[in-house]
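Exam revision sheet. Question 4 asks you to relate a sequence to its structure. Input first:
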Amino acid sequence: MNESNVFFLTLSTVIGSTLRVSTPLLFAALGGILSERAGVINIALEGLMLVGAFAGASVAFYTHSPVLGALAAMGAGIVLAAFYALFVVKLKADQIVAGTAINLLAAGITPFLCKILFESGTATPTLPIADRFQSAPIWIVWGLVAVVFLWMRFTASGLWLQFAGEHPEALSTAGIRVSRVRWLAVLASGALAGLGGATLSIFLSSSFSRNMTAGRGFMALAAMIFGKWRPLPTAAACLFFGLADALQIRLQGVVLFGTEPVPVQFIQILPYVVTVLVLAGFVGKSRAPQSLGIPLSVLLATSGLTLLSGCSRSGDFAARLNQEFEAIKIVFEGGRSPLAKNSPIPTGSSASAGAVSTEAQRSAENSELLRELYRVVFLRDPSDKSMFGSYVDSLNQGASLEGLFNGFTHSGEYRSLELDPATQARAEVAGSVPKVVQVFGEELAQLESNLPEPTSFREKDSLPLAEIEMPKGVFDTPSEISFPAPGTSPGTTPSAKAQVSAARYEKLFAKASVFTLKRVLSDEALQVISAKAKKPGQLADWYAQWVVRTNSLGVDFGLPLRNRSDLKFHHDWALKSSQDRLTWEVLNRLQRLLNAAIDSRRSS
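Answer key, structure tokens:
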């Protein structure tokens, strides 16, 4: 055999060996990605792989099926991962300490079970070739790399996973339970790490031996960090570590210098030396998920959010941090960003034709928009820079304005305002109706007339959010309001039935908190928009007529174009705008109506 053939034979052997030895690393690293992108540090991969290796070899021995062995390995990994998640997700234990405990538990329990089942504390019986995997794990793991990559990039649940590690407070406001996402991520991590352990005992080897993972769980963590918590770069890192492992196998007994081979112990440490060098050189250049290792309770305590709807695809988180900070700084120092002058509402896009807004400018525009939202909701400017910064960050990363509004009106801060006696809308003169309650009743009657199945309001609905849940049902006396055809001027006097409904609401909510009134009215508006969104033309008709009617009340809505009484203009704008922008304009207008009524009461 000539030297060329020897070279290619050696090369193919090394490549095949690299693919084989990198397979368990890649299984575990994918599991680590799922766990850590959800915000849970998982140094327990070593222990999860170890129990997977034992369970896989044991079940394969008794059933003579490597498939059942792999399933058992995944099950064992899930069970141990559930034990880990119980402590770190449910009980908020320190994740490093809990992960170390899981590794120690696995290292102790596997030889104990091995002794019980096989009367040997060091290894399980050898599996025949027929009871072992041949090449299937290699194909499976690379298929999983593709699946995880596509899932994280193109699916809503994949986005939830990433938000759980980057912005869990935003995900929580979506009505999506962050703890549930983290539980599922840790369990999936356990299944994949267990499968990685099974490849060690019924693919690369023919049995389980004590501590056979030999640090591969930590190597998988290093590969994940080297790959910046992304599937494809992590796969490349696993191949790199696999190559180092394959080379140390090939170099054992080979004479490299002089006449004697290098001691095998020095060759065997090669993969670990490479791991240390990679971590020393690259860990400082990798940015972990923003909320990695931080319990959800801490995050929510600093953000005050509990509900968010409408997350969309985010870009590179790290590249925007400095830009967001500068934008927030501009807003808090009293500066103004160049907002669109020809749009009814501030937006994140450039106002001038052909101009391309930078990320920093869009972030500043989002900051100003959120500051307006904060003002109309809470009747004051935001005072907590870190909390306001999390709001800006959520909007920059794709959260909807409606979602942030819901987050505001269901937050702990808002609930405290609803419960504050100073915010009650009681009449100062016996028998009179406060202006804010009157405006509330009229607007609620108008909104209710546009719902196919209006909401049924009862006495407890006038209580703060912290004390009630909004009931849903059939309204007992639905009102009917006839609006003129598009293009004609709408009337400003509600129908007789609407007046009756308004009076009923005034009486029902006479003693409610102003903030309760604002929340109830906004919730009804969201229902109307949702009901009419199926027919954009109908939604635009309703919006234009409602805007012109409310403009006749003499309230300043903040921008000149908002105050225009041009039915066609508002109708055309509604047709061209996204539902998110239109929703914000409706909510903003309702909040301003009640704020103006509050100011009227104060001045009187």
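Marking note for examiners. The longest helix spans residues 3-37.
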